[in-house]
Amino acid sequence: MRIQILSSEHIRPSSSTPTQLRNFKLSFIDERIPPSYIPLILYYHFNEHKNIKQSEISHRLKISLSDALVQFYPLAGRIKGQSLVECNDEGILYVETIANGSLSDIIGSLESLVLDNLVPFKSNGYVSSDGEPLAVQTILFQCGGISIGICISHQIADDCTLSSFIKYWSGMATRDHRDAFSPVFNSSTLFPPRNNPDFRPNFQSLSVSVQPGVKNLVTRRFVFTSSAIDVMKLKAKENSSIANPTRVEVLSAFLWSCCLATKVIEKSEQYSIAYHPVNLRERIPQLNEHSFGYLFQMAGVENDGETNWIRLVEKLRAAFRKIDGEYATKLLGEKGFELAKKNFMEIS
Question: Which keywords describe this protein according to UniProt (predicted)?
């Protein structure tokens, strides 16, 4: 499939960010996060009933994105150093392209590298020298469908923040304001930045380096249907002590067990540790689902030989529960910085 660039520009907020909001401080949790990008791709089939032209959709996406950036103003700024975003309204990179294929060709392909063509930045640990927190690429397919590829900086936001932004942008694009909300910017108040050199990310120790040195690396894309996940949840419920296993728990445990299976085949050491991010928004009263930032801690799970994925679900649940209200209270306390530092150092 050939993809051709139609235009490349920067979309700025539709109104200027007030002077008092120009310097956005990152939290001491944000400070530890590598500045690579989280990619996400949204797919939209052509709706024959509405019969809206791609050109009209494209125009509406740009206008609504500009409006959404007024509320999510740090995304239109530039990351400066370790602890600050300069909210200067320079805007986000917006690339519009056209493809000579069908949306179904992409969705049906299991080759993960194909997806790199659908996002503005490659998924190889790319770091923008311009400090752009956000970038968007749209692709107009011959079938009438559209894909929206989004890259957001790890350093400034997590998946929950990205989800909130997309929800807000969608509301602006469809003019549906029934569930209108405003993002909450209080993470740096709860977790004041330290700008501490020894708390910076140790890129050399990360499992996926910012500049990967491994050439013979193979990636694969795995698709789990909703019905398959429901079956897994039911199996875990019927064969474990957990009454309500989540999608995250069953899929994480299943993939972990698959990794352990390769160790059995290779007859290598069976001991393993899994680390999983745990969202802090549900554990701290001052936060809500629209709190902006990278608000998580890592839960570590040790395993010495267990390969049954259902037993691994139980291990994951036990680890997740350790990041509880008591842990959150300590994180908000005087020694919260040291606690967060210890949490991250365990995986670096």
Answer: Acyltransferase, Transferase
Condensed to tens digits (0 to 9), the pLDDT of residues 209-262 reads: 444 455 566 777 788 999 999 999 999 999 999 999 999 999 999 999 998 887
Question: Cα 273–310–301 angle (5° rounding)?
Answer: 20
- What is the distance between the alpha carbons of residues 4 and 98, in angstroms, rounded to a whole number? 5
The pair of structure tokens assigned to 300 is 């570590």
CATH 3.30.559.10 fits 224-345, yes or no: yes
Closest by Cα among 8, 3, 34 to 207:
34
Note the pTM of the prediction, 2 decimals. 0.87
Among 260, 26, 264, which residue's Cα sits nearest to residue 158?
A: 26
Q: Where are the alpha helices (DSSP H) in 191-335?
A: 226-238, 247-266, 309-320, 325-332
Q: What are the residues facing 5 on neighbouring strands?
A: 97
First to last CA, the chain: 39
Write out the CATH class of domain 3-201. Answer: alpha beta
**From the CA atom positions of the chain, what is the Rg in Å?**
21
